[in-house]
Specification:
By secondary structure, the chain is mainly α. Helix 1 packs parallel to helix 3 and helix 6 packs antiparallel against helix 7. The relative contact order is 0.09.
Length: 136
């Protein structure tokens, strides 16, 4: 059974560190948290966000795929995975994940907008316009 994390170690605190411009401290906290609670999808999703911001799209993709496999209806992870895949020119896969996010939460502006961009990149202008109109 995984150990409980120490008080003061949390995803919210790691996010605050990241927003305060302290990615190293945020990463260290998330690593400790994931060591103690390896199935913590919120921590893994934030770690993926951090990896992506630091230029490691491959690690971010792996982590987000793990989150989505564990929680297939997690809109934030589906959207992030779509964005990360799009930066790797994997537009069809990106559209698949973004489409799932939009289907689960039609009011998710970020997913609608990201789907619009991906559809435009694939030359699917009708779908791009449709996603763009739903975003606004």
């Amino acid at each position: 059974m995984p150990k409980k994390p120490k008080p003061g170690i949390s995803v919210a605190k790691a996010r605050s560190l990241l927003q305060a411009g302290k990615p190293g401290e945020a990463a260290a906290m998330l690593k400790k948290l994931l060591k103690k609670t390896p199935n913590n999808t919120a921590a893994l999703e934030l770690m993926a966000e951090l990896a992506f911001k630091q230029g490691d799209a491959i690690a971010a993709t792996r982590m987000l795929q793990t989150v989505v496999a564990s929680q297939p209806d997690r809109v934030s992870a589906l959207n992030k995975l779509g964005v990360v895949l799009a930066t790797q020119s994997q537009f069809a896969k990106a559209a698949e994940y973004l489409g799932r996010a939009v289907k689960l939460d039609p009011d998710c502006f970020a997913a609608q907008l990201d789907l619009c961009k991906v559809n435009r990149e694939m030359g699917l202008l009708d779908k791009s316009i449709d996603a763009g109109l739903h975003a606004v």
